[in-house]
Every structure is written in structure tokens, then in C-alpha cells.
Amino acid sequence: MDESAKSRGRQATLYQWGAPQSEPMVVTRGSGAVVFDDQGNAYVDCTSQAWSLNVGYGHPAVLEAARQQLERLTHVRTAFDTEAKLELSAKLAELVGKGEDYRVLFTLHGSLANEGAMMLALKNRSESKNFVTLWDGYHGRSFATRAMSWPHPENSFLHFTGNTVRVPQAYCYRCPFGLSYPECGMACVDFAERAIRASSDGPPAALIMEPVQGNGGQIDFPLPYYPAMAEMAKRLGMLLIWDEIQTGFGRVGEMFASDLYGVKPDIVTFGKAAGGGFPLAGMVARADLGYFEEGDFSLTFGAFPVSIAASLATIRVIEEEGLLERCRAAGTRITAAMKQLKSSYELVGDVRGPGLMIGVELVKDADSKEPAIAAAQWIVAEGKRRGVLLGEGKYGGRTSVVKIKPPMVISDEQVEQVIDVFSSLVAEASDRFLVPRRVSA
Ligand code: PMP
Q: What is the pTM of this model?
């Protein structure tokens, strides 16, 4: 790290509480899929700023909608409506409900959207006190949602959180039962049901799951897993909450993962990309569920009008600019290139999708599948030096998954730049960390 970066890092930790910055960076502006730092360096941002800028940095249509709203009204308490809020609610209810009645609740943070969903589930399952989540799931860092997420080993708040039954997910690359799909017959679903029945004191209120796990390691599941888990939730009388905070708004090549996997959850939560770069989150829930009473759920800044206007514009941009197709095309190209790398380098253990939600799991050798954590960290750090920002699984070196999740507006040229940089990094990391190339290389 150069001296000026170090001193900026010192400044960052002097004056702020926040996530530790391993590679301090002061960002100044962004455009499309590219972000610039205060040294004038440009980066293709495959992190989309915590996977939020699906339509890219500063999309003109989103900025214009926000600007117009800004001039009219910047704040109303959640008890009031605005025209844009009514329009966005109708649009989201239609996108998720597809002809069935769904209702929308807004928050600004994904964690609070999930808490809202959990509270709504409790409201409708008043005899329940437990929730079911999947291993490696991540649902937020608020007080209640951290207990629904993978257990952080140094969780200082452990004593205050709980009521979670965590069951193994269909992480087929590292099947906890040592089985292979499809011969396994999805033993994990059967096991999950037995574990829930044996572990939960009474029927749980809900199963909350990410259709594609993001933070926990970029893990998608075999197609039949989705309906099988939905049926299991029904059998156990639990509501099904899909946390689409990462998968929503085009990231998987459809507006929502529920479109891609053909499952209709009782509640879908959204966030991140929903506001096109402005903070917005919330839930869309079946309208026949018993709803909150006054005072059950109330947030001062629950529905920031500027974010609502930006969100309407974001959805229009996704629909009118064909960004779902763009996401699928760019995703297919990058995924194919990563699979090609896998055939040449043992370091590349697994390549996962869908869309532009790509994870590359790095291993020290193909047989032991020991996570190549140092190599993954080196690739992320070195990628930055070569103008490509890549993401890490979990954080603090807890997985060896490198993530490639750029904005959907990424150009073909930028796609090739990412592939070139990543390919040379894999080749160099294989030598540097002594991971053999495959025979075919
Ligand atoms: N759910 C998922 C799937 C997430 O990825 C995140 C954020 N990484 C959250 C919930 C929490 O959202 P927020 O940080 O906006 O509270």
C-alpha cells in the first residue's frame, strides 16, 4: 500500500466508526460500471457498491427522477402517501404478486425489511417463536437479523440474539453429507425437515432464505431445491420469506429470483438495487396475511420520497433498456470464461451463477478442496491494482470465494477487461500459491 493510501487509512479510522478498511480508498465519482478514486484511478466495479448499483453509477434517468422529486418534497412520514409511493407500491405488488394481491411496506435498510418480514410472520403465527434459516445465510446486521445470519465467531451480541434453527443448505460443491447431486435425492431437504421438527419448540414462524446466497459464499442451489423447500415450509406450517435483497432488480437476469425459480414466497424482501443508488428496501407480502396494527412497525424515514422516485425510474430503466437481457448476456460470457479457467487451473474449484451474481470458489487442490483463502485475498487486492474491483465471500478471509457482480450496464469491452484481468490473476496466483495447473493446461 502506498504512503498516501496509508495516511488516508489512518484518517478513516481516526474519525469514523465503521467497517475496517483493509485497502482504504477514497472514491470521488462513478459513471456506468466504473468508479474513480481521489488519485484519478478508474476501476471497473464488480462489487456494484455492495451489489446495489445494478443500473450503474449515476444513471441519468434515475438522477433526473431524483432531482425532480428533490425539488418538490424530500420528506413525509410513513403515515402519508405520495403519488410516487402509490405508483411504486402498485408496481412492486404487480411484479411480485403477478395477478394475486400483494402489499408493500418500505424501509430504507435491508436488515429492517427482514425484521419487518419476521414481525409480520410472527403476527400471523402468534404461537411461534422460532425462525428457520440456512447455513451461510445472511439477512442483515440489525439486532434481530444477525441471529438469522451465519454465526459470526466473534459475535459480541450473541447473548441477546436467538430463536434460530439453522439447517444445512444445498451447497453441492461442499455437500455436508458427502453426496452428489442429483443421486443424493436432495437428502438435505429431508434432513432439514427432520432437524426442524426435532429442534424447534413448536412450529417455526417462517423459513427465511436467500434464493442465491450472497454474503455467505455466492451459492445457488439445484433447481428442484427451490420448490422442495417451499413445499417443506408449507408442510411445517411456516411462512416462506425470500430475502431478495441481493437477487432482486435484475441481478440474476430476471427482475426477481422468484421469477427465475418459479416459486411464489409469502413474503419477498428487497433492498440494495431497488433505489438505483438511493437507499430503499422493504417487503412485498401476500395481502391476505394479517397486517400490522398501528405502532407495530413505524419508521420516521421509512419511505424517503427521493428514493421512491429513483426506484420507479430504476425499474423503468431495467425494463426499457433491456437490462435483464444484458445481465444474462454479460453473465453468460463471464461465467463461460470462468468455467474455461476452471478446466485449466485447479485453483478454480467451482464457478457459480446465475446472471451477474457470479462466484468463483478457489481451492488449494481439487481433491481436498481446501479453501485457498490467501490466494483469494491476493486476487482481490491485486485486481484492484489492475483496475478491477472484485468482491470477497463473507468478510475478513472467511471464505475463498471471489465475486464478480458488476452493474448490468457493463459494456462488452469492460466484460473482456474483467475476464482478462481475472484470467491473468488466476494464472499468477496458481504459481505464487503453488496450486497445480490441470493436466489439460
Ligand atoms: N439480506 C441480504 C441478502 C443482504 O445481502 C444484505 C446486505 N448485505 C442484507 C440483507 C442487509 O441489508 P442492509 O445492509 O441494507 O441492512
A: 0.96
